[in-house]
Amino acid sequence: xxxLPASGPTRAKLWLALWPAILLPLIGALVYFVIFPGTVLxxxxxxxxKVLLFFWPFLATRWILGQxxxxxxxxxxxxxxxxxxxxxxxxxxxxxxxGLLNHSTxxxxxxxxxxxxxxxxxxxxxxxxxxxxxxxxxxxxxSALEEFYWRWFVYGNLRHLKRPALAHLxxxxxxxxxxxxxxxxxxxxxxxxxxxxxxxxxGLVWSLLYAxxxxxWGSWLSHAIVDIGFLALAYPLIFAPV
Length: 242
Hints:
Mean pLDDT: 91
Radius of gyration: 18 Å
Shape: globular
Distance between the termini: 44 Å
Largest sheet: 2 strands, antiparallel
């Protein structure tokens, strides 16, 4: 994984690199899920947005911040420690999701109410027949890209602008915004806010892991475990006989 140099660019350049990174996922979610849902135009804009998301950290680091990419070099033992801590948090989060889904009428009923719309959106995306393959991609590849994007780039730059607590909080809130837009399409706004807060808490823990150990390996593994657990729990609901 790559590491950001600790000093160099001005505050203005850091914000110029950060604001598009914070807003692009939100704009993409609004276009695809709210403004042009289920349309060719919406999918096209969403695809372009995803490409921009992948390349923006590289472009901004090189051409706005004037920095070169370098490999991260965590202290000896930190990579393993981050993987252990990430695994522990991921397992805890999945256990909490399982408990709430199976033993809480409040959560269970609300999740069940959103399943028909979720099933329809998955069908519109054309991945219903490839749910497992899509889940593997989402859990392993997309989670790695999100950790690179949100923890390495967004939090990694924000910590040079704000005190540690505000940097962690700002990165977590930014991470949760586009998730709220998506969740708000399937659930009531109040429940979507609650779920988005859970997403933000996950993002907060992952940036804390990154800050503590100097590597995103642990946060990536934790993120992957959470995604795998979520998709596994969702499978019987989505594919239950209608």
